[in-house]
Amino acid sequence: MSSTATLQKSLTIDNINPHVKAARYAVRGELAVKSEEYRAQLDAGKKDLPFDTVISANIGNPQQLDQKPLTFFRQVASILENPCLLEKEDVLVSALGYEKDVIARARKLLKFVGSVGAYSASQGAMGIREEVAKFIERRDGHSADPSNIFLSNGASAGVNALLNIICATPSTGVLVPIPQYPLYTATLSVLNARCVPYYLDEHRQWGTNLDEIRAAYDTAQQNGTDTRAIVIINPGNPTGASLEVQDIENVLRFAAEKKIVVMADEVYQTNVFKGQFYSFKKVLRDLQQKEPGTFDNLELASLHSVSKGMIGECGHRGGYYEMVGFDEKVKAEVYKYVSIQLCPPVIGQCFVEMMVNPPKEGEESYPLYKKEYDGIFKGLYERAMALYEAFKKMEGVECQSPAGSMYLFPSITIPPKAIEAAKQQNKQPDEFYALRMLDATGVCTVPGSGFGQKDGSWHFRTTFLAPGTEWTGRLVEFHNGFMKEFS
Amino acid sequence: MSSTATLQKSLTIDNINPHVKAARYAVRGELAVKSEEYRAQLDAGKKDLPFDTVISANIGNPQQLDQKPLTFFRQVASILENPCLLEKEDVLVSALGYEKDVIARARKLLKFVGSVGAYSASQGAMGIREEVAKFIERRDGHSADPSNIFLSNGASAGVNALLNIICATPSTGVLVPIPQYPLYTATLSVLNARCVPYYLDEHRQWGTNLDEIRAAYDTAQQNGTDTRAIVIINPGNPTGASLEVQDIENVLRFAAEKKIVVMADEVYQTNVFKGQFYSFKKVLRDLQQKEPGTFDNLELASLHSVSKGMIGECGHRGGYYEMVGFDEKVKAEVYKYVSIQLCPPVIGQCFVEMMVNPPKEGEESYPLYKKEYDGIFKGLYERAMALYEAFKKMEGVECQSPAGSMYLFPSITIPPKAIEAAKQQNKQPDEFYALRMLDATGVCTVPGSGFGQKDGSWHFRTTFLAPGTEWTGRLVEFHNGFMKEFS
């Protein structure tokens, strides 16, 4: 064969889709790849690394980090996978300890989907969408319509579908919070649309600032950008913020005034430590009751997922979005778009049903469910606080107190010598810092530049999912060493 | 509230993404929606329909149509969902009849993925990709590299990723067989790229015709289209064709000559009734050995899925694609693109492993697996033949004899009066025919216009998955009535 040097490929980095090439997605970028290499080295018995475990604090992946799945969910799923087990109900109950409500739930879900191996309707199984609508009604105290519910392949697929519909031209813009979960900017890149960044207010617990949003919108308009939607991530990713009702009302008023779609990413809605979660849907409906007519034109899409919360079933790729106030013809186009990929994973759809309908008080599985759920919640809170306390001990590190989601997003003051060293390696200063942290401690985080941040400020995002708090000590030690090295 | 008539939405059918709007995906279009309405009416006890069951012959969805899942697969999956069952191995074995190899496989897969509720690597779990590579080696007699294997959310997600990379500009073209599975044209529409249609040769068992391909390429080039890839679906969808080695070699030679990527959609590779399946990869490697150097520049992506074959686990959304001969930088962009959606469903990945590694002779689960597998294969063949015989009885209907996949795609001669009636309803003649068929028989098919066909010819696609053969009688009766009505 001729040498590869002489081969000319049809596809090269210079002639593929430039919009895919332009996309950035740091959550699974260089650091993540390197951390997996370290893990493989440790697994293979390598001894000369300065750490003995890799901590994947770069991604909200609870079950990779030893969070145990909720028993009820998995017992039901085991029957869904093998419905023949229902022929041996006595064995399930007496020998395997399955409660009666587990079996009843499996029967109900099998009625909804037939077989978890069959395609469902593209929008998701109707029975499950009805349960989601009832959940939203209970949560918000306002009605919800199953025909507005789209089950999805994780929340990410919902974001993808909605942005594919919204992004009509290269001058279409979408307001995106900075810092943000990079799914938004990456998808906008792929779609050759414009990200209209608005900065969150770090010193007000990373809240939204209406003046900031208005200024971003106006600047975009002056640049010929046709802004069609605003993204809000509440509770915040990567910030961990949890919005107040007033903040949400402000966003809704602004969206109604400018006639733009609101995309509320609410996947962390049960991960709230301070105050409580208010859904955009509830706040919208409350406003509509108080001020009839004002918000009638508003289109709100809100997203939820089984990947986060205390469930943490990321690998099952379950999620949903509710489309409120959209034109029926537009919804039909969303349906067509999602139908091209046939349907969301059916077992993931079943997890969505269990998420919106967990065991209730009085049901057999409730005591264990409650114990597991509370234990996970408490563990998350304790680790968040431990990390927060560790950050307090680090020179030049500032962190908002934990409020929600699974992340902390401290700012770091990087010494000029380290900034210079980063430049020489053609890296952002916080990227350089996070790589050094990984090399020294085995802890993989994501540099703030992967999410966006104000010029001249540097951050990193860490989850507080990894078990134990020993590793927070590693971080303190690394940081102090780093500061000394580059002082 | 103000009346909806006065509301002005941000998003309307006239200002959303025009490329999504332009996409057509008939497999889940008007007929499918109508058939689901009929089904709901029957379920609700409606008596005055001229049929008592709806037959969803529009989509290859075996388990919706009572095909039983393979026991081994589902027993393993039940343990993957609830690994606590492994603590009661004796119960699994003695009370539930799980064989030892079921338990061993579940342990092996759990080692590969950790938890099915955790995100895996974006390209899929490495252990599973290694098993896929070994399977390809056994199948083809040529080596395969796990780093070239991408696990995916069904084969559809693989097509989506590959086309997203390939389609660089609005003048990028992709050669697509006509008739085709509309995933291809729909995705090209969404990406604002060009479908370069080449017609399959109906009277040569729907085979590929190199002159046809060459002519299509040349015409496209004259129109300023930059053709970058050719799609082949083998065995064929919707045609049911199964390609000979010579046909495959012709396509590979042409692709090497024109320096275009080959996308081989091989999801029906085990659904072959006539002759045998040859993978594009094997034929390529054989050619490379025979003619060193000639094919070194060729890029081949071949796709497979757990949705079809005798497995039929569509709802689990498992698939993979192998990328052979691609530039590493291009592969890195594919990786980045798929990482934006995090990872394919993990339980679906496990089904891929079981597909490529089913129970082997001598293993405990083999006898039952073999019996189930052969039974499904035989059932498919018998129903294909029953349908084929039924079509022979219909005036003006011509059908190629069943060769592969899950479909027959007969041509129909539609009387001029019916064509006129269709026109008055603003429908294609075969759409009109298929709607009439659904209304009269409850059998839902997809009109040929949903896949593309030569001008003036009309077809419909039917699966041969639905149990029994009684419904083929309904078709004959409907057709004869239709011909009489419009004669």
Automatic annotation (TrEMBL), chains A, B:
Keywords attached to this entry: Aminotransferase, Pyridoxal phosphate, Transferase
Family annotation (InterPro entries): ALAT1/2-like, Aminotransferase_I/II_large, PyrdxlP-dep_Trfase, PyrdxlP-dep_Trfase_major, PyrdxlP-dep_Trfase_small
Cross-referenced CDD domains: AAT_like
Gene3D superfamilies: 1.10.287.1970, Aspartate Aminotransferase, domain 1, Type I PLP-dependent aspartate aminotransferase-like (Major domain)
Domain Aminotransferase class I/classII large: 113-470
Cofactor names: pyridoxal 5'-phosphate
Ligase among keywords: no
Gene Ontology MF: a single term: pyridoxal phosphate binding
SUBUNIT field: Homodimer.
Family: Belongs to the class-I pyridoxal-phosphate-dependent aminotransferase family. Alanine aminotransferase subfamily.
Listed name of the protein: Glutamate pyruvate transaminase
